[in-house]
Write a structure and sequence with these properties.
- The structure is a single chain.
- The chain is an all-alpha fold.
- The protein folds into three domains: 33 residues; 78 residues, Orthogonal Bundle (Cytochrome Bc1 Complex, Chain D, domain 2); 88 residues, Cytochrome c-like domain (Cytochrome Bc1 Complex, Chain D, domain 2), CATH 1.10.760.
- It is 53% helix and 2% strand.
- It has eleven helices and two strands, in the order ααααααααββααα.
- It has a two-stranded antiparallel ribbon.
- Strand 1 and strand 2 form a beta hairpin.
- Helix 3 packs across helix 6.
- One of its GO terms (cellular component) is plasma membrane.
- It comes from Kocuria dechangensis.
- Keywords: Cell membrane, Electron transport, Heme, Iron, Membrane, Metal-binding, Repeat, Respiratory chain, Translocase, Transmembrane, Transmembrane helix, Transport.
Length: 263
């Protein structure tokens, strides 16, 4: 009987089962992702916001991103980037760019809060994307700094430094310091992955974990330096080189001073 049942099994049965398992896993992942991201997709924009945002877009952004936001050789498409990407890029002054370079530099914001909201509202109509986060995920008092440290060290510290002080990347690019950055901009950066940063959607880092990361970074801003002068929290290699250079200069200076006195 056992031999007969093995003969009746179709040779493609295992392959079919694997395909079905992959489809089921993918479907469950898509449902979970949609459910999590829906938490931050509740902000709505009025028709007037969208209309005014379109005017601002055509006057300030269309040269690089195209009249319909679909992109040009000078700028990427904005279809599907969502309101969060606009709020981050424009709200931190990185956009509009002042000049071409390895990455957009942070500079004084060129639009007021209402105009930023209008631009975000218009771009949100170009395609579904992450929206500006809800206030409940920006409340550092509700976050867990200890858990935020774990999430940050596992996902962010390799570029931004364990103390959030930033660091150099390749080809003139860099990971900026995260000190004194607004809570919503930290959240939006994780959501949208600006510049060289990967996207950490709500399936990778949940909204609650993003809030924990923000709490951890805000804790670092007010934490004292138990070792004295923090040297910018650049890390043991940079700090060690700094101390070694200063120490060597002091030794050389002292040696020159002793020699001059002997002469």
């Amino acid at each position: 009987m056992k031999a007969l049942s093995q003969q009746r099994r179709h040779p493609l049965a295992v392959l079919v089962l694997m395909v079905l398992a992959l489809l089921l896993t993918g479907g469950l992942y898509a449902v979970a992702t949609t459910t999590n991201e829906a938490k931050a997709q509740t902000q709505t924009y009025t028709a007037q916001d969208v209309e005014e945002g379109q005017k601002l877009f055509l006057a300030n952004c269309s040269t690089c991103h195209g009249m319909d936001g679909a992109g040009t050789p000078s700028g990427p498409s904005l279809v599907g980037v969502g309101a969060a990407a606009v709020d981050f890029q424009v709200g931190t002054g990185r956009m509009p760019m002042q000049m071409n370079g390895p990455q957009a530099e942070k500079k004084p914001v060129q639009f007021d809060d209402e105009q930023v909201q209008q631009l975000a509202g218009y771009v949100a109509t170009l395609g579904a994307g992450p929206n500006v986060p809800e206030q409940e995920y920006l409340d550092v008092a509700e976050g867990n700094a200890a858990n935020g440290a774990k999430v940050f060290l596992a996902n962010c510290a390799m570029c931004h430094n364990a103390a959030g002080a930033g660091g150099a990347l390749t080809r003139g690019k860099y990971a900026p310091s995260l000190m004194e950055v607004e809570e919503k901009h930290i959240y939006e950066a994780m959501q949208t992955g600006p510049q060289n940063m990967p996207v950490f959607n709500d399936a990778n880092i949940t909204p609650e974990e993003k809030r924990d990361v923000i709490t951890y970074l805000k804790t670092l801003e007010t934490a004292p330096s138990p070792g004295g002068f923090a040297l910018g929290s650049l890390g043991p290699v940079s700090e060690g080189l700094f101390v070694w250079s200063i120490g060597l200069a002091v030794i050389i200076g002292f040696t020159v001073w002793l020699t001059s006195r002997s002469a």
